[in-house]
Amino acid sequence: MRAVIVAAAVAFIISLFGTPVAIRVFTALKAGQPIRSIGLASNQGKKGTPTMGGVVFIVATVFAYVAGHIALTTLPERQIAQEGPTMTALVLLGLFVFCGAVGFFDDFLKVRQRNSDGLSAKGKLLGQAIVSAGFGIAALYVPSTNGQTVASEHISLIRDISWLDVGKVGAVMVIVFVVTAMSNGVNLTDGLDGLATGASILVLGAYALIGFWQYRHWCADDAYGRVNDYCYQVRDPLEIAIIAAAAAAACVGFLWWNTSPARIFMGDVGALGLGGLIGGLAVVTRTTLLSIMIGGLFVIITTTWVIQIVSFRTTGRRVFRMVPLHHHFELAGWSEVNIVVRFWIVAGVCVAVGLGLFYSDFLAVVG
Predict the structure, then answer these.
(1) What pTM was estimated for this model as a whole?
(2) Cα–Cα dist 94/140, whole Å
(3) Where does the pLDDT of residue 214 fall: very low under 50, low under 70, confident under 90, or very high at 90 and above?
(4) Nearest 5°: phi and psi at 160?
């Protein structure tokens, strides 16, 4: 537990004090956020606000993991921890960084060209697919010394569903879909000051709790796994908890500067990175289907966006005033702060229900 706290504290401090530095740097580089001319008039005032702030919490998370892992090797937990980074940590952090890199390239093009176009939709999807496929292959084809892989060949809900074995190739395809969908879901949510950041904190916090709970009931733990029929067959759950807690805390530090009125935006580097990490956490904790509930706000916003696109292209009619969904409520007269807080409440309810389902499964077996 102390290793998780150390990682979270380091991430928070780096992000809280590093974000003002990023604001000054990106302002000096004239890396301002372009705003679409056809967008809402209320958003035009945000034009020029520095973007690409997601770099801060990605860097903070990586450094915080190192600090947490060092703390871990000096604690009693060392008996089930390896000296260097685990494969689980490498693939999760790699996914976070490289999904962020796709977003960084998109942000760079927007800033350089002084418009909101950036990377094409196909180019962005291709980049996400390549990164997530690399994550899936590493997670499925690189086993540990005991033969266990980071990811599973089964579809999972709260743990692997035994009769839903899709094989390695099928599992990689599922991973690509989950990571890409969640990455784009967070990106669509990132439209109002603090909205995506706050919702991501809640989801990442949930995965920190899930990872730590799995660690406390881990099949590889001699103190638990050999004397209990009910345990979690995951790999390196404490490392998962460290990374999720570090990312959540880094986002808290960033939110201090990102809340309305935002001094800096996370940009696609932050949104795609966070979504990729959340999708990766769902895969490594064996909660792929449960992530639909835990990340419910992102799923809702993505679903309404798809409904709008399909409706307009097939019937020429719009179901919502504007998508993503938060812009629909802006046009309905809601203030930005009201929308953000209410959407945070929705995200919190989804997280609470998801955690409740996760824990109820445990109680159903041991109760």
Answers:
(1) 0.94
(2) 15
(3) very high
(4) -60, 140
Instruction: Assess contact for 3 and 242: CB atoms under 8 A.
Output: yes
Residue 256 CB contacts under 8 Å (≥ 6 apart), including other chains:
16, 19
Q: Which two tokens stand for residue 258?
A: 């990102």
Cα–Cα distance measured from residue 247 to residue 253, given in angstroms and rounded to the nearest whole number = 10
Distance CA 344, CA 68 (A): 28
194: left (phi over 0), alpha (psi -120 to 50) or beta: left
Tokens of 34: 């372009």
Element holding 165 (H helix, E strand)? strand 160-165
Contact between residue 257 and residue 263 where contact means Cβ atoms under 8 Å apart: yes
What mean pLDDT value characterizes the chain? Answer: 89
Contact in structure between 195 and 342 (CB atoms under 8 Å): no
Dihedral of the CA atoms 81, 84, 87, 92 (nearest 10)? Answer: 100
Task: Tell me 236's DSSP state.
Answer: -
139/151 Cα distance (integer angstroms): 5
Provide the 10 A C-beta neighbour count for residue 79: 9
DSSP state of 316: S
CA distance 248 to 208: 8
CA distance 110 to 25: 17
For residue 36, give the amino acid letter.
R
**CB within 8 Å of 310: residues ≥ 6 apart:** none
Cβ-contact 210, 355 below 8 angstroms: yes
| 212 close to 356: Cβ distance less than 8 angstroms | no
* pLDDT tens for each residue of 46-102: 777 898 999 999 999 999 999 998 877 776 544 445 566 889 999 999 999 999 999
The pLDDT assigned to 118 comes to: 77
Helices (H), the chain: 2-28, 54-72, 87-113, 121-141, 167-189, 195-216, 237-258, 267-284, 291-294, 296-315, 325-331, 336-366
At position 38, the amino acid (one-letter code) is I
CA–CA separation, 276 vs 128, rounded Å?
8
